[in-house]
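Justification of resources, computational component.

The compute hours requested in this renewal are based largely on the per-chain cost of generating structure records like the one below. Each record pairs the submitted sequence with a full structure-token output. That output is archived, and it is also reused by downstream analysis tasks.
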Amino acid sequence: MINKQVTSPAEAVRDVFDGATIMVGGFGEAGSPIELIHALIDQGAKGLTIVSNNCGSGEVGLAALLNAERVAKVICSFPRTANSTVFPDLYHSGKIKLELTPQGTLAERIRAGGAGIPAFYTPAAVGTPLAEGKEARAFDGKTYIMERGLKADFALIKGRMADTHGNVVFNKTARNFAPIMAMAASVAVIQVERVVEPGSMDPETVVTPGIFISRVVEVPEPAHESQLVAAGVTYP
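The structure output for this chain reads:
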């Protein structure tokens, strides 16, 4: 299918299934696909594994998905950040599992998964509890631990503009994990502020080519997590 545009966030996440592994873009609120996450809450899939940099803030976006108890496990670097209350409560009550991963290691695990690399060695976390149970090897007299590449069934990410073929331009650092998550997921879904016709964008500005994107949905005025949290908004 050449035209990858779908009509709504709800249509974009229609086939997410129970137990799916989902990568969610965002560095704090930068690049967080709020509308896609809220559509996933409405869709109802449960028992999910979420791969993300953090666990959201307040009770919107990713935090709202956790609060709805749809997530069984989180693989992330910063499970608790400013305005983060949902995850700590769920974790301490035993309702959610956590696989804590250093941020650089998380990025490389995702990139490796997208590149077809099953595992790699890194010195990060050597000598810490995060290295327990993992294979260790010495290279040139230095110890490294083995980390597995990460792949996902779906990726929910956010861009600034895309064409109907799925070629994407991001908004500065809101790019963060999105390009590698698109590569590592079987189905990559992106929300953008504007969808244009093929040929309308300068190809030199395209960050993620359409071959890695499965669905594009236009959200002209996306919500901003910090504004929703400051206003005390909860979802649903």
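The helical segments are 9-12, 34-43, 61-67, 86-92, 103-115, 178-184, 225-230. DSSP finds seven helices and 14 strands in the chain.
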